[in-house]
Fold:
Amino acid sequence: MSNSQNGQSSGPVLAQRLGTKEDVARLCSMAPRTVLRNADRGAMPWGLKIGALRRWDLDEVSAWIAAGCKPVRNVSKGGGK
Structure:
């Protein structure tokens, strides 16, 4: 028997709201391609890989914006190796 009431599942509740690069682009007022570039170079949260998909925790992105959009890891300005 299930412990659900009123048709609701009693399983775990997902706390994260995941969004696409387009969702993040709207939050940050930038192009989706810029989201990928900034995330790849460490200037913003990298996101999560789910199979071939890349998603961002929208709460994490909102917190990053509220904290002043500081780089999440050291960003090399030289572009060298």
